[in-house]
# Entry
Amino acid sequence: MINHTRTLLLNMRADIDPNFPGEEYVAPDFLVRTVPTVVQKFRNLVFGGEPDRYMLNYRLYQLMTVLHSTELEEYVSAQDSRITYLPLRLGQLYESMFIRRATILNQFTGDFNFIGDLVGGDEDGRLYHSWRVDVTSSSLIRVQRTTKPLDQETFEYTYTDGLSDLIPLLGSSLQFNFSAPVGAEWIVEAVSRPQLDMGQLLAALNVGMLETDELALFGTAPAEPLKTFRNLWRDHDEYAYKFSGLLLGITYLMDQQQPVG
# Structure
């Protein structure tokens, strides 16, 4: 299977959109596998509880970078040497992914200014946020959040030096101000950057993955290469080797699972 390891870590059928940030090839005949409890625990810690496509692609890029950073990458291609995502280009992903934009609709013109930084997304795994903003009168503006958690509220505003008061973008740490006539409407989109880096994720996994999880993942007396993967996860001092031991154990376990349904 092309991109064998990445596809198993993703465990989703995907309609490939080459313009979507971080998108990689998934074979059209791939069947989603049943997820064991220990793997679901790993996924919740790494991707979040309800990860969107942005989070999945972002974290998978980071995970594959770890797996290809040592000689353990031989196990990544052990089942199938065909890989489409090399060479890894992190800078390009960063530049295209974390955006903030407001697109004004209809014939109106106006100014829309973001205030603050968009943070979060690690816990739920949702990085993409969108809103519909409508200037409904000379003193009222309606903000409708169109991604989870769905919400809507109307705010009063006044102008000072040609710009409105600060208005919150519901369900986020962002605010905005604007200058536009009554009837102006915007589609507003933003993608947050996860706060946890890979070292912090590894620390969380160290705490969260219990001895019972290790037994479920590697077994009591694993044969090679699972024995090597377990020892790396359990005992290695270097970040890339320790993380790779866990990731390869996850991949090998997923490879044994039956397709859903």
Residues 4-94+196-255 form one domain. The longest helix spans residues 239-255. The chain has a mean pLDDT of 94.
